[in-house]
Design a protein that fits this description.
With 124 residues, the protein is α+β, with helices and mostly antiparallel strands. It has four helices and six strands; from the N terminus they run E-E-H-E-E-H-H-E-H-E. A hairpin with a 2-residue loop joins strand 3 and strand 4.
Length: 124
Amino acid sequence: RGVSIEDNKFVLSVHTRNVSEADLHTVHAIVDSLLEEQPLLRRSPGHHVVELKPQVHWHKGRAMEWLIKSMCDMLGLPSGGATRNGTAMPIFIGDDVSDEDAFALLSDGRGIPIVVRPGAPARN
């Protein structure tokens, strides 16, 4: 009870925000059994959500990198990491641990990561 499932086209999100503490273990056990049946999926935990993703090397950091390069190419701007820094300043706002890959991509002055959750790590 309390589980909602969201089809995000390439990711299946199992939202557990409304699941009672007593039922949470059962929900995770069901997700684990599903993963045993579907070896091409992997678990990615988040805040009150478990994402089931394909076993590919793709995450929000890689997506952000692709978007930045594509937009720079479209606008005729340098798209390489070192040359792009002077022409584009990407901003990423996120509230979940699944956003960490995008935050890491924008570290060291390569963009502006904005973390909007309690207890978030301090960033430069």
